[in-house]
Amino acid sequence: MAKSKDVRVTIILECTSCVRNGINKESTGIYRYITQKNRHNTPSRLELRKFCPYCYKHTTHGEIKK
């Protein structure tokens, strides 16, 4: 299947402050949000402040690859 050229794409936001040691070496964050963004308005990687229940505070969540 070919990739879709839709304007709105689904992205994953991952907590950048909580670090897991030993469980999964490739992933640095624990908590993830799934949302959408407009590819034309926001071509760069998205970063939002969201609540992380593992850190128990609002932290920066950055966009990661699927």
TrEMBL record:
Spell out the molecular function terms from Gene Ontology. Answer: structural constituent of ribosome
Entry-linked Gene3D superfamilies: Ribosomal protein L33
User: Predominant location of this chain?
Assistant: plastid
One matching Pfam family, short form?
Answer: Ribosomal_L33
InterPro entries assigned to the protein according to its UniProt record, in alphabetical order: Ribosomal_bL33 (IPR001705), Ribosomal_bL33_CS (IPR018264), Ribosomal_bL33_sf (IPR038584), Ribosomal_zn-bd (IPR011332)
Cellular component (GO) terms are: chloroplast; ribonucleoprotein complex; ribosome
GO BP annotation list: translation
Compartmental location:
Plastid, Chloroplast
Which keywords annotate this record?
Chloroplast, Plastid, Ribonucleoprotein, Ribosomal protein
Q: Which family does it belong to?
A: Belongs to the bacterial ribosomal protein bL33 family.
Name this protein carries in UniProt: Large ribosomal subunit protein bL33c
Q: What is the lineage of its organism?
A: Eukaryota, Viridiplantae, Streptophyta, Embryophyta, Tracheophyta
